[in-house]
């Protein structure tokens, strides 16, 4: 485990999620694939900025909103047959882990 991953599991989890989703959707055709790829990339970017203490509270809030959007897009991907239920379960575990970490961070930061 690298020094960075020991200090920032949120980044490591977000990077793993982005890698998985981009491998699945980045070169796939269609609006849903493009939206999934764009949303997970934006999520990784805002988490990275929050970890670097750049407008942390705003970026944590935006990351939470992006996770909400991502969950909806992933559910749609299942309904459209772009993800199996097993794949959905796998990726949702990653999304939920990130959500729990963000929730802890939001509670620590206080009301936004």
What is the topological layout?
Layout: H1 3-7, H2 9-25, H3 31-51, H4 56-79, H5 85-109
Q: How does this model look, in words?
A:
The structure is a single chain. With about 110 residues, this protein is mainly alpha-helical. The protein has a single domain (about 5-110), classed as Up-down Bundle (de novo design (two linked rop proteins)), CATH 1.20.1440.60. The protein has helices spanning about 5, 10-25, 30-50, 55-80, 85-110. The protein starts with a helix and ends with a helix. Residues about 1-5 have low confidence and may be disordered.
Salient structural properties:
mainly alpha; single chain; elongated; de novo design (two linked rop proteins); 112 residues; disordered N terminus; 0% strand
CATH homologous superfamily descriptor = 23S rRNA-intervening sequence
Write down the secondary-structure element order.
HHHHH
The portion of residues forming beta strands comes to under 5%
What does the main sheet amount to?
none
**Rg (C-alpha, Å):** 14 Å
Number of domain modules: 1
CA distance, first residue to last residue: 33 Å
What is the number of beta strands?
Answer: 0
Structural class: mainly alpha
Specify the overall morphology: elongated
Mean pLDDT across residues: 91
| CATH class designation | Mainly Alpha
Helix count?
5
Q: Which CATH-level-2 architecture? A: Up-down Bundle
At the fold tier of CATH, the topology name is de novo design (two linked rop proteins)
Helix share, percent? over 70%
Give unreliable regions as ranges: 1-6
């Amino acid at each position: 485990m690298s020094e960075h991953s020991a200090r920032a599991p949120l980044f490591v989890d977000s990077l793993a999620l982005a890698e998985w989703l981009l491998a699945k959707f980045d070169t796939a055709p269609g609006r849903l694939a493009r939206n999934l790829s764009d949303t997970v990339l934006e999520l990784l970017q805002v988490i990275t900025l929050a970890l670097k203490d750049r407008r942390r509270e705003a970026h944590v809030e935006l990351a939470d909103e992006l996770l909400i959007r991502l969950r909806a897009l992933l559910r749609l991907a299942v309904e459209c047959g772009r993800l199996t239920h097993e794949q959905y379960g796998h990726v949702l575990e990653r999304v939920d882990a990130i959500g729990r970490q963000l929730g802890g961070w939001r509670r620590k930061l206080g009301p936004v």
